[in-house]
Amino acid sequence: MSGIKFGADSFSTYEEGIKKEWIVGNGLGGYASSTVIGANTRTYHGLLVASPEKSPGRFVLLSSLDEEISINEEVYRLATHKYPDTVFPSGFNYISKFILVPFPLWVYQFGDFTIKKKIFMIHNSNTTCILYNIRSRREGALLRIFPLVNSRNFHYTVRSGELSFTQKTNPAGVKLESSNGCTFSLSSNLSYHSDPKWYYNFEYDIEKKRGLNFQEDNFNPGYFESKLKLGTSHFFIAASTEDVSSLTLEQVEEFYTRETYRQNLLAFNSRLTEPFALKLLRATDPFIVKNPSSGESTVIAGYHWFSDWGRDTMISMPGLLLIPRRFEEAKYILKNFSRHCKRGLIPNAFLALGGEPIYNTVDASLWFIHTVGRYFAYTKDFLFLSDVWDTLEEIIENYRKGTDFGIGMDSDYLIQQGPQLTWMDAKIGEQALTPRAGKACEINALWYNALKTASSLGTHLGKNTSTYETLAAGVASNYENVFWNPETNCLFDLVYKGEEGYEVKDPAIRPNQIFAVALPYAILSPEKEKAIVDRVEKDLLTPFGLRTLSSDNPLYKGHYCGDSVTRDAAYHNGTAWPWLLGAYVKAYRKVHNYSKESLEDMRALLQNFDIHLETAGIGTISELFDGDYPYTPGGCIAQAWSVAEILRAYVEDVLGIKP
């Protein structure tokens, strides 16, 4: 796969260097992540962030490695840290290159030394490995590497008085046990020397901007050391929740080769060859993980802080797993959610990777049926379809009769639901920022799509699906009358009963209506589909996503920034979301009769992300962007449905590669 490269001009200042972040996953939901200059700017940054056994959530265990080379009176410090009113050391000044291919590689150059440093994780292991290739043109130089460790939930900060460590040294390094029960090891082919001390008052710039705790202390148990020979020396450090004391340099290098091969195999198996598609394909891998407690495959919704969410998983699966042809994993994920279906609802979220599921979502079950349909289109897996058929029936029957959270079919065949159950679910305290209790335009487009999909799938199994066709016809007969707004020539976003019992129709122009055009089964006339796409293009389209609210609306917020209250107010009231472009591209091509011009327009739109892949989360796509120019990225640096829907749209709707 092609790589992403930056030269020294990209790190000319600390402020520029911290704008770019990298992340490497381990297939278990753990990761290694920081900025390209090695300065941690989030509580979520660290070289080993993992879920220790019997610990809820993910913990920062190895925060960073501070390398220094000394010779005579000269000391070259490669680390970069932010402290109150100062940056020290400023090792980013020595970086000449950063390359992501497929894992992060730094080249440091200073004096008579050149250092190449690689970071990767062993797949399905809470193990991070760092490889050093050091070329010295002087004799007598000394290398020291100081690990800064912690043992805290990645959402929070900690101070030295709140945590302590015991350490047991061994010939290869040290085993650390924290006072809160986490155990992990550091090993190396460098010699280890115990010299415990605390480093105080690290500052995390992004957390400071977000109005969160941004200062903490990290523990340094000692240091790894070796004299450098004239010529080239090779070293490694491994950090793990497992016993890595017997690791050798040769084994670590072999692990690197295997991980590189695994990445290349993903590209080969996908059968994709187009360069931009391959870049997006590489970005899919960290999201597909095994739940560490159950061993079941699932999807991480976003890095750094999300776990596995039902809605996000179903929307993401075509791009994350079907386009890359990872059909076995797709099957097991669908089966897992099917097993957890309760009263027709699949889980909204599995909190903390293994906690009890919560079910407060109206659309996840409908997206589940859609995704089963897409899986069958790609695989023709009749046995799987037979296995999950009961779940499809359960979902439709419960939605028809009524289930939890006020979800159920009204007399007009349309689905209504209680508050905060659609994807626009942000709230401050108990105040909903996008109140959508009632009948939502995309939920009923999904309901119609689910009925038609189930009818089609059931036919393949020889089932009597006439009831589904009858229900679908009822939805189609009422949808336009309920949702069409002739004044704006598009759909009302929501229809609900007001305080006095009168019907209220919300004319806010939001992107949810695009699904009435993009889903496989059309519920509106071609003329009205075209009008919707034209309205969305005029009011909501940006180069990196669809705005969640028209900029003409008085509630519109064009920037996603500030503290949590300010950010949440903008989250679904103007902020642009990349994942929505997947539906937009499909709808745009459809209403323009798949013309050559529409193809080139959508190719250009999606290829805007080729630039973005080098500007925020390197090699991946952010959760959201400002609705206003210059469309600054925000939220998670890597979001599953952002990557998935851009890849799916590019492959299916631009390259024309379909099942």
From TrEMBL:
Occurrences of domain Glycogen debranching enzyme bacterial and archaeal type N-terminal (ranges): 20-233
Bilayer-crossing regions: none
GO molecular-function terms, A-Z: 4-alpha-glucanotransferase activity; amylo-alpha-1,6-glucosidase activity
Name of the protein: Glycogen debranching protein
Source superkingdom: Archaea
A Pfam family per the record: GDE_N
NCBIfam families linked: gde_arch
Species this chain originates from: Methanosarcina spelaei
PANTHER family: GLYCOGEN DEBRANCHING ENZYME
